[in-house]
Amino acid sequence: MKDLLFGPWPWYVAGPLIALTMFFLIFFGKEFGVSGNLRTICSMSGAGKAADFFKINWKDQTWNLVFLLGTVIGGFIAARFLTASEEIALNPETVSHLQSMGFAEAGKQFLPYQIFGLERLCSLRGFLILVIGGFMVGFGARYAGGCTSGHAISGLSNLQLPSLISVVGFFIGGLLTVHLILPFLF
Q1: Which of 11, 40, 48, 111 is 20 to 30 A from 4, alpha carbon to alpha carbon?
Q2: Does residue 165 belong to any structural domain of this protein?
Q3: Domain limits at 145?
């Protein structure tokens, strides 16, 4: 029981819980996606006056904002109180490869200090990486008609072909980024 509470949940626990959540969303006619919340927040802030894209009834999306808030709170609780250690099990070859790239603490923590350390984020290079990366994620989510969670969880559950194509594209983009772009950044 301690492993289930203080470690990653196994697929046979997490998978059915995600499936049950998706069943209820489909049953109640809702579509899940985190990036859609950005549109809702912009609409709440009055962005509909500047762009037609934001002219939506944001009150219809209140449930999704509550879900997003629950995700943030749940992540905080899991990280602060339900994580026994930040050490993660990585293949020794992966650890060696990451260490050769300058990630001295590879496998010892979830977020590498070399990327997410305060000094790194406050540098010009770190700031540019955040701004360019954020723009690319935002543009990609808008261009694909949703984010990875929306397409991979909700779209695939609804058997939508565009979601399948998007998820394949997300994985290809992630692999290319990790193998071709990340080595040049660090």
Answers
A1: 111
A2: yes
A3: 117-186
